[in-house]
Fold:
Amino acid sequence: MPMPRPTSLRMDGPDLVIEWNDGTVARYSPHRLRALCPCASCAELRSHSTDPPSPDRFSNVTFRQVTPVGNYAYQITFSDGHNTGIYTLDYLYRLRNLE
Ligand SMILES: [Zn+2]
Structure:
């Protein structure tokens, strides 16, 4: 499979909307991406939980900043100050159907 690439990225209300080069338009809510933060400490927390990550826990979280990292990822800063998650394009693409 060719590497998925965003052709556009924009904010729509509280959500991040990414248009992918295969024509898929995906909407990402901040609480969903916050719950699925790929950083080591969040992954560690999730590994100790038998429950799936609950976006409800982060229902008040919003996006503060979305910064490109090289050409393979975005670093996302959330309103709760958390910013250690590097969301690779591959990871975001895999999450495109979650909501
Ligand atoms: Zn994290």
About this structure: The CA atoms of residues 33 and 79 lie 12 Å apart. The pocket of zinc ion is lined by residues 37, 39, 41-42, 82, 84-85 (CB under 6 Å). The chain is about 20% helix and 35% strand. The beta strands are 6-12, 15-20, 25-28, 63-69, 73-78, 86-88.
